[in-house]
Design goal:
By secondary structure, the protein is of the alpha/beta class. The chain has 2 domains: about 200 residues, Rossmann fold; about 100 residues, UDP-galactose 4-epimerase, domain 1 (Alpha-Beta Complex). It is built from 10 helices and 13 strands. The strands form 4 sheets. The protein has a 7-stranded parallel beta sheet, sandwiched between helices. Strands 7-10 form a two-stranded parallel ribbon. Bound molecules: nicotinamide-adenine-dinucleotide and uridine-diphosphate-N-acetylglucosamine. Uridine-diphosphate-N-acetylglucosamine binds next to α6 and β8.
Length: about 300
C-alpha cells in the first residue's frame, strides 16, 4: 500500500485516478479547491480530502511534511486554455508557481518520494506544421496556459535531473469521459456536447469544426499514468494520447449516431489562441508497454451509456 497525494483529485482526471488507486489498495489524499472539481466525484471512495488552494504554500508544506507521500500526482490547475487567456496572472500562480514551490519544498526537505508526476499538455506544441507531435518536436506555447504548462514541465524534469529527484511529466492530449464537469463554458468540449445531447441545449461551435484533436478516454489515461509512474526510466516527458486525429465535426457526427439524436448548434468565431490541428506520436509511451484499450467510438459509447449515473 502506497501513500498517494493527488492535487486536483476532485476534478475529472484526478477523481478517475483516485478511484483506481483506492481500488488498488492505496492510501489516497486529495487537495482540491473545488473551483471545477466536485465532492460527488469522490464521495463513494475512502480518501482524505482537503478543500484547499494549492497556492497556499504554508498549507502545502505542512501537508507534504506530515503526509510523507510515496507518489504525488500534480493535476490541480486552471485546465482551460480559454480561461487562461481571460485570467493569465491567476493561471500563472496555480499552473506554475505552486508546482515549483512544491518541487522546491520536496528538494530542500529531502522528503522520501518514489515519484512526482506533473500533468502538462499538448497545448505546448501550438500551431507548428510538423505532424504527428513527438516529445522532441518544437514547442510553440501560444497562451498563458501553454506557457505555464511548458515551464512547469521543464521545472519538473530539470529538478529531477539537477537534484536527482524521481520526477516525470506527461503531455495529455484531449481527454474525455465520465466525471468531466460540463457546467462551465470553459469545460472540455466532449463534456459540453454530451450535456447538450442529453438535455437538448444548444452547442456553441467555435470556428468551422475542422479543428482536429487526438481524443483519449479517461480510463486509458489513468492506466497510462500508472505505467509511466512505474516504468519511466528517468525524468522525462511522455505524450499521452491515442495517436489518432479527428475533426470536431467528425466527432459530432459519430456522437450523434451513438446518441440517436441531433446536436443543436450555433456557430461562433474561433477562440483566441485555439489550436487548429493536434495529433500525437505515441511511440515513446508504447515503449513502456502501454496500449490504449478504447477507440473514440467505443469510448463515446461507454461515456454516453454511463452519463448521469
Ligand atoms: P479539472 O478542471 O477537472 O481538474 C483540475 C482540478 O484542479 C479541479 O478539480 C479544480 O477544482 C482543481 N483546482 C484548480 N485550481 C486549484 C487550486 N488553486 N487549488 C486546488 N485545486 C485546484 O481538469 P482535468 O481535465 O481533470 O485536468 C487535470 C489536469 O490535466 C490539469 O492540470 C489539466 O491542465 C491537465 N490536462 C487536461 C487535459 C484534458 O483534456 N482534460 C489535457 C491536457 C492536460
Ligand atoms: C483541452 C483541455 C486542456 C488541454 C488540451 C490538450 C479542457 C477544458 N481543456 O484544450 O486542458 O491542455 O486539451 O490538447 O479540458 N469548442 C467548441 N465549443 C465549446 C467548447 C469547445 O467549439 O463549447 C472547441 C474549442 O474551440 C476547440 C475544441 O472545441 O477548438 C476543443 O476545445 P476544449 O475541449 O476546450 O479543448 P482544448 O482547447 O483542446
Amino acid at each position: 500500500m502506497s501513500n498517494v497525494l493527488i492535487t486536483g483529485g476532485a476534478g475529472f482526471i484526478g477523481s478517475n485516478l483516485a478511484h483506481k488507486l483506492v481500488a488498488n489498495g492505496d492510501n489516497v489524499t486529495i487537495v482540491d479547491d473545488l473551483s471545477m472539481g466536485k465532492r460527488k466525484n469522490i464521495a463513494d471512495i475512502d480518501v482524505t480530502f482537503y478543500e484547499h488552494d494549492v497556492c497556499d504554500h504554508g498549507f502545502m508544506h505542512n501537508l507534504l511534511s506530515k503526509g510523507r507521500f510515496d507518489y504525488i500526482y500534480y493535476l490541480a490547475a486552471v485546465a482551460s486554455v480559454a480561461d487562461s487567456v481571460e485570467r493569465p496572472m491567476a493561471t500563472h500562480q496555480i499552473n506554475q508557481e505552486s508546482v515549483v514551490d512544491t518541487l522546491d519544498y520536496l528538494r530542500t526537505q529531502h522528503l522520501p518520494l518514489k515519484r512526482f508526476l506533473f500533468t502538462s499538455s499538448a497545448a505546448v506544441y501550438g500551431n507548428l506544421p510538423d505532424f504527428p507531435k513527438k516529445e522532441s518536436s518544437h514547442v510553440q506555447p501560444l497562451t498563458p496556459y501553454a506557457i505555464d504548462k511548458y515551464s512547469s514541465e521543464r521545472y519538473t524534469i530539470d529538478y529531477g535531473q539537477l537534484y536527482d529527484m524521481p520526477t516525470v511529466a506527461v503531455r495529455f492530449f484531449n481527454v474525455y469521459g465520465p466525471r468531466q464537469n460540463p457546467e462551465s463554458p470553459y469545460s472540455g468540449v466532449l463534456s459540453i456536447i454530451t450535456d447538450c445531447l442529453n438535455s437538448g441545449k444548444t452547442f456553441s461551435l467555435y470556428g468551422d469544426g475542422s479543428q482536429t484533436r487526438d481524443f483519449i478516454y479517461v480510463d486509458d489515461v489513468v492506466n497510462a499514468l500508472l505505467t509511466i509512474v512505474d516504468k519511466a526510466p528517468e525524468p522525462d516527458v511522455y505524450n499521452v494520447a491515442n495517436g489518432m486525429e479527428t475533426s470536431l465535426s467528425e466527432v459530432i457526427r459519430t456522437y450523434e449516431k451513438i446518441a440517436h439524436s441531433q446536436l443543436k448548434m450555433e456557430k461562433k468565431d474561433s477562440r483566441n489562441g485555439d489550436i487548429s490541428k493536434s495529433r500525437a506520436d505515441v511511440t515513446k509511451l508504447q515503449s513502456l508497454g502501454f496500449k490504449p484499450k478504447w477507440t473514440l467510438e467505443s469510448g463515446l459509447k461507454n461515456y454516453w451509456s454511463t452519463y448521469g449515473e
